[in-house]
Design a protein that fits this description.
The complex is a heterodimer of chains A (118) and B (105).
Chain A lengths: L2 E5 L2 E3 L5 E8 L8 E6 L5 E7 L6 E3 L7 E6 L4 E6 L8 E8 L5 E4 L3 E5 L2
Parallel strand pairs in A: 2-11
Antiparallel strand pairs in A: 1-3, 3-8, 4-5, 4-9, 5-6, 7-8, 9-10, 9-11
Chain B lengths: L3 E4 L2 E2 L7 E7 L7 E6 L6 E5 L3 E2 L7 E6 L2 E6 L9 E6 L6 E2 L3 E3 L1
Parallel strand pairs in B: 2-11
Antiparallel strand pairs in B: 1-3, 3-8, 4-5, 4-9, 5-6, 7-8, 9-10, 9-11
The chains are: A mainly beta (118), B mainly beta (105).
Chain lengths: 118, 105
């Protein structure tokens, strides 16, 4: 059974940093592109970042470019999102998602809440 | 960036109704259009990919179609478990974008 479990969310002050993790199981993690998608409270979905299976290519949403570092550890079946210079508007649930060969997101984690507030 | 415009933003329907949600892309995206269902407090669930292919396990009352840059999600006979918010998503470029969502209530 495919499982994605996010962790690392919490309350952080504006300008602070946070590192999110996503633990994957039930599939060959090293074969798949992986993404992060976020959802601000009461709002819609927003794609955040995507990483290639070997970690070589990474893509980021313009609004967070320069403040994000996406990485993965295929030996540990884990995905990471380092976020810096966080802003109030970055407050959201951050979901980890597996990218299917058709580029759809076929499996999602339960999400981890990031709250940026003073 | 490619903009995805969904309509309506919300709709009121009853069990048994036929429901149609439209998503328009600001430019050509081929068939790289996905539909997701999200219930309150839950992660999104993939319903349809490549505009019209049903994800495994999704009931056949859900269907998708395309005409140029206009994409349609249809629920042929709304069931109680279908009350949720639906999102379209384009993945024709690496910089993906979602529609703003349609709440079915």
């Amino acid at each position: 059974e495919v499982q994605l479990v996010e962790s690392g969310g919490g309350l952080v002050q504006p300008g602070g940093s946070l590192r999110l993790s996503c633990a994957a199981s039930g599939f060959t993690f090293s074969n798949y592109w992986m993404s992060w998608v976020r959802q601000a409270p009461g709002k819609g979905l927003e794609w955040v970042a995507t990483i290639k299976p070997d970690g070589g290519d990474k893509y980021y949403v313009d609004s967070m470019k320069g403040r994000l570092t996406l990485s993965r550890d295929n030996a540990r079946n884990s995905l990471f999102l380092q976020m810096t210079s966080l802003r109030v508007e970055d407050t959201a649930i951050y979901y980890c998602a597996r990218v299917d060969t058709t580029s759809s997101k076929d499996f999602w984690g339960q999400g981890t809440l990031v709250t940026v507030s003073s | 960036d490619i903009q995805m415009i969904q309509s309506p933003s919300s709709l009121s329907a009853s069990v048994g109704d036929r429901v149609t949600i439209i998503c328009r892309a600001s430019q050509n995206i081929g068939s790289y259009l996905n539909w997701y269902q999200q219930k309150p407090g839950k992660a999104p669930k993939l319903l349809i990919y490549l505009a019209s292919t049903l994800q495994d396990g999704v009931p056949s009352r859900f269907s998708g179609s395309e005409s140029g840059t206009e994409f349609t999600l249809t629920i042929s006979s709304l069931q109680p478990e279908d009350f949720a918010t639906y999102y379209c998503q384009q993945t024709s470029t690496t910089f993906e974008t979602f529609g703003q969502g349609t709440k079915v209530e």
